[in-house]
Amino acid sequence: MKKHLIKRAAGVVGAATVMTLVPLAGTSYAATCSGTGCTNKGPVATGCDAGATTKKSTGDSYRYAELRWSATCTAGWVRVVTKDSPWGPDYATIEAWNKNTWDLTKSLSVSAVSNGSDWSNMIGGAGYAYRVCYKNAWDNTLSCSGYWYS
């Protein structure tokens, strides 16, 4: 009788443990940072990528940089996309400019992969003029988007 109760209890505990590890369908996770608290953190790891939108972009159809913005987190990052670009190492940056003094407040960059996409960490905070730039290693050109005001 004791063995039967122990087995049954172990089964219930095991099932409860599995249920706590498997999220239910449709479960959403809240972002883990906001504003300047997101600076230098990854958009995917913090959940800020969910619902993010592209505000500005620069480049061409083979390689470009996008300014991605999370309204939930009040933070932005640069996503770089390359298609058949063997020249490398291309890279992209996101810049946050003080709108009053036009001083560069913060800049983060990410190297472009030869055929795919990657993204930088975030710069958090409202009240900046953000832009993204793409540096093409093949002809050494730099293209920057217009400013987007958060």
Would you kindly provide a written description of the structure presented here, covering whatever features stand out?
This protein is of the alpha+beta class and 150 residues long. Helix content is 16%, strand content 40%. It has two helices and ten strands; from the N terminus they run H-H-E-E-E-E-E-E-E-E-E-E. A hairpin with a 5-residue loop joins strand 4 and strand 5 (104-111). The longest helix is centred in the first third of the chain and has 20 residues, at 2-21.
Short description:
The protein has 150 residues and is of the alpha+beta class. Helices cover 16% and strands 40% of the residues.
Write the layout of secondary structure elements.
Layout: H1 2-21, H2 43-46, E1 53-59, E2 63-70, E3 75-82, E4 91-98, E5 104-111, E6 116-119, E7 123-124, E8 128-136, E9 141-144, E10 148-149
Antiparallel strand pairs: 1-2, 2-3, 3-6, 3-7, 4-5, 4-8, 8-9, 8-10
